[in-house]
Design brief:
The complex is a heterodimer.
Chain A lengths: L3 E2 L4 E5 L4 E3 L2 E2 L7 E7 L6 E7 L7 E2 L2 E6 L4 E6 L8 E10 L6 E5 L3 E6 L1
Parallel strand pairs in A: 2-12
Antiparallel strand pairs in A: 1-4, 3-9, 5-6, 5-10, 7-8, 8-9, 10-11, 10-12
Chain B lengths: L4 E3 L2 E4 L5 E6 L6 E8 L3 E9 L2 E4 L8 E7 L2 E6 L8 E8 L10 E2 L3 E5 L1
Parallel strand pairs in B: 2-11
Antiparallel strand pairs in B: 1-3, 3-8, 4-5, 4-9, 5-6, 7-8, 9-10, 9-11
The chains are: A mainly beta, B mainly beta.
């Protein structure tokens, strides 16, 4: 079964507007983590934001915020005030624990390509 | 600015040749991961090291792939012999595993491999 689902292959947003990228996940673990990564055309994977399953507050990092709805198993990324440099692929990922030290594998979604229009 | 360093960034080789990809994890990190990214399969975990010991390489084709960490500053992924289906971007990521909590994996820029 797919652990991470990103249903939007591509999204467009006007510069300076906000955009929401959807992510739903599937796990039976009580403790898990959700991540968003950005992959620009240059290819590197850039960590953006993290949300722990026990965190009561939605995570925020600058213009990025994570809309975490645990009951719905969704972890949508909200980018406010979009900039041209935000054009990239965005991957949602869920942490699966590999061992008790906390090291983990990340299950990635298929990604959403965001294009910011001037 | 600490970052994971991967070399080479690009590699073009012929089928049957040996390929070695290198990764320098972030200083102080004790876990290293190798991922492969393809259009068809997305990102897949190949191997995982903790404190230089291989703990999981179930995602790796054993007959041709091997992963090692000769020391704490170097991880290698070798393919011998390489095949066209190995063409992909290979990412190395490192992290600090201290507790079952926030545990971020930081990725290198990747090695884009093309096997002709």
């Amino acid at each position: 079964a797919q652990k991470i689902t990103q249903t939007q292959p591509g999204m467009f947003v006007q510069e300076k507007e906000a955009v929401t990228l959807d992510c739903t996940y599937d796990t039976s673990d009580q403790s898990y983590g959700l991540f968003w990564y950005k992959q620009p055309s240059s290819g590197e994977m850039i960590f953006l934001i993290y949300q722990g399953s026990y965190d009561e507050q939605n995570a925020t990092e600058g213009r990025y915020s994570l809309n975490f709805q645990k009951a719905r198993k969704s972890a949508n990324l909200v980018i406010s005030a979009s900039q041209l440099g935000d054009s990239a692929m965005y991957f949602c990922a869920m942490r699966e624990l590999l061992d008790q030290t906390g090291a983990n594998n990340l299950f990635f979604g298929t990604g959403t390509r965001l294009t910011v229009i001037p | 600015d600490a970052r994971v360093t991967q070399t080479p960034r690009h590699k073009v080789t012929e089928m049957g040749q040996e390929v070695t990809m290198r990764c320098q994890p972030i200083l102080g990190h004790n876990t290293v991961f190798w991922y492969r990214q393809t259009m068809m399969q997305g990102l897949e975990l190949l191997a995982y090291f903790r404190n230089r010991a291989p703990l999981d390489d179930s995602g790796m084709p054993k007959d041709r792939f091997s992963a090692e960490m000769p020391d704490a500053t170097l991880a290698t992924l070798k393919i011998q012999p390489s095949e066209p289906r190995d063409s992909a971007v290979y990412f190395c990521a490192s992290g600090l595993a201290q507790s079952i909590a926030k545990n971020i994996q930081y990725f290198g820029a990747g090695t884009r491999l093309s096997v002709l």
